[in-house]
Amino acid sequence: MSSTAIAKTQQSSGPVLDWAAGHGPVTGALSATTGAFAVATTGAATAMPPGWALAVGAAGALGHTVIGLRVRNAGRTLATRAASWLVGAGWTTWAMTHGPLTWAALGSLATLGVGIGAAARSAALFEEAREDEAIAAQERQIAAELSAERRAIAAEWVDRIQRVCSLTVRVLGVEMWPTGTGFSIDAELPPGGATYAKIASESARLSADARLPHGCTAVATPGIHQGRVIIDVTTVNVLEEERTYPTDYAPLSVHTGIPWGYRTNAENILAYLREQCALVVGPTGSGKTNMVHAILAGFARAEDVLTWVIDLNAGSAGLPWVLPALNGQIDSSDGEPVRPGVDWLAGTFDEALLMLETAVKVAKQRKMGYQDLLSKANTDLLPIGPQIPQIMLVIDEGAEILASPDRQMRKLAEKILEVIRIARAMGLRTVLTALGATGSVLGNLMIRREAKVRVALTGGETEGMDLSKMFPGTRGLRVDQAPYKGAGFMATPESSAGLFKTWRILPNQIRDIIAATSDRHPLLDDVSAKAAGSAYARRWDAERTAWMRDHTPTNDTKATQYGPASSLKLSALDDGRGSEQDSPEDEMLARFRAEIDAQFATAPDPHAPTEQAPPPAAAPGLNLSALRGEQDNSAQQAALALLLGAGTEGTGASAIARALADEYGTTRQTVVGWLKAWVSDGTAVRVGEGTKARYVHRQHAPGTGADG
């Protein structure tokens, strides 16, 4: 039989004794009597002097008394233990003298054991009662002190409310916050139709009368019914200090709320976004970008959320959540590839439009594909979970897109509003940001109606921060109450507008969150993936993400709040009619210019050398034309490189001129002169007529059809 089997047999053969455990009344008495009997028997057999047992008993009694005094045992306990030692030693001495194996010795030993056990049990009960009484007395003392403090606070604030608000309230309770940063007062309003709004409107005066520190407020909110009011008084300014994002990256859910920051009482404030959209406003320098990162961190921790980000400002809001994973800068502990912190990132107009169109398709497909599931669940809200994740679209400066007059931005705005309008039940919600709480941002009824989670980061900025429009119906909010970066006001359907601050999050912590949550991101459900198609499946393809790794500053990665700037195009995407993004006016102008070029010899730039008009002779004196000549030569070489790079498709004069305009200031007329000269000397070939005319480099020219 193996040792393991023997051990199992021994374990199952009887009760397991814990020899390290302390003695109770029964085991203690049993141990004392058996020990005394063993000593008496051994001593009688070996003729041991009886006085030794008495000496040992006296020493034990003295030792236990000293220890009992050190731990502050009761006198009854000290007497019981000392008597047990002395009585046991006395019986041992008597038994060693007269013999321990007589019925008288055994009977007296049994009686002695019962007495010791009963005395020990009585002493233990007394000690427990004494300890409970000491704890209760301490609690009564603390309660009395708290009660006195609460009574003082209640009396103070009754007088203050009467003095400032001309209302006589009756305080029903004062709750001290566990964080030690303030307290809440539950008060009953006087009869006569008084409401909490009267106290809420005097928040600033109450705070000043209470001499609260800067950043601390007295905010009134509705009580348990309309005749009650809750007054939250902050006594410690927690908004002044900077706190980093909590390092506990525990799993979250859209159903249980995503933490976005903390209130003045140091408690986390949660955003519930299953059915609500969100709006975050903040001027430059208020910490809005950091707030976006904190929001993305919460979404990354959620097990039932996929985050899609649109940032036309070079994708700056989402790049820290994507590049560390795409560039292999993060190692996974289990050897699996690390997924980006966001599920899709769009930094260009085309990618943003593709993402929004995909979101609309997903919403519509979910409505059709999950009818059976909705029927079984007896609900009109799609059951969101890890198997069917919610899609959160975070659109940086998205409110400005909605208010922009630019034609391209209007296309995006239409898609954003469509997602907001049709996708609530199907689990697609948006988080929009803006630079200020202005009428143009909040003028859209859809935003005001759907974005019930609202954040206003002030940073002490007063321009463009109309808090009355951002939080209608809430009174007493002032920008100077939150002059710190990352601080401001936040309101949700579950909590009224009040001061809050978001956490500071740094790039190294973003990488930690990406690594910690990589295996937590859900996969897009099959119904949605089918609707998304290749637009979603190929979102991380090299050609789609090339702009993320291109660190060369170009106009293609720039955008203002009124729309993206013109971009530098180095391919044959333009066929002489303008790009696909051109307006109808631009396309008409391009066709008109091409028609003029085809029918007439458009005059070239006067400084460009042509066969018909040779360059004029240099005038005497100081001549700086050589510098311009070098510039023209560089521009001409760049134009020739563009023509060569266009391949067999060719390109037009308008496309080349637009590509060179920013760097060289080249006009279209100059490019037309170069193209005619290249056609004349055989460097280029003209293909097509009229508006379809284009120029192809001779290396890519077709074998026939060359047109001089």
Topology record:
Blueprint: H1 3-12, H2 25-45, H3 51-70, H4 75-98, H5 103-165, E1 170-176, E2 182-188, H6 196-200, H7 203-209, E3 218-222, E4 228-234, E5 258-263, E6 268-271, E7 278-281, H8 288-301, E8 305-310, H9 319-326, E9 344-346, H10 349-369, H11 371-377, E10 390-395, H12 398-403, H13 407-422, E11 428-434, H14 439-442, H15 445-450, E12 453-457, H16 467-470, E13 487-492, E14 495-501, H17 507-517, H18 526-537, H19 542-549, E15 559-560, E16 563-564, H20 584-599, H21 625-645, H22 653-664, H23 668-680, E17 684-687, E18 694-697
Parallel strand pairs: 7-11, 7-12, 8-9, 8-10, 10-11
Antiparallel strand pairs: 1-2, 2-4, 3-4, 5-6, 5-14, 12-13, 13-14, 15-16, 17-18
Helix pairs in contact: 2-4, 2-5, 3-4, 4-5, 8-17, 9-17, 10-13, 10-18, 21-22, 22-23
Describe this structure in words.
With 708 residues, the chain is of the alpha/beta class. The protein has four domains: 23-136, no CATH class; 167-234, no CATH class; 280-450 and 505-549, no CATH class; 584-613 and 626-697, no CATH class. It contains 23 helices and 18 strands. The model is unreliable at 1-21, 552-583, 596-630 and 704-708 (pLDDT under 50).
Summarize the structure.
The chain has 708 residues and is α/β, with parallel strands linked by helices. The chain contains 23 helices and 18 strands.
Number of domains: 4
If strands are numbered along the chain, what order do they take across the biggest sheet?
6-5-14-13-12-7-11-10-8-9
Which radius of gyration do the C-alpha atoms yield?
A: 42 Å
The count of strands amounts to: 18
Number of helices: 23
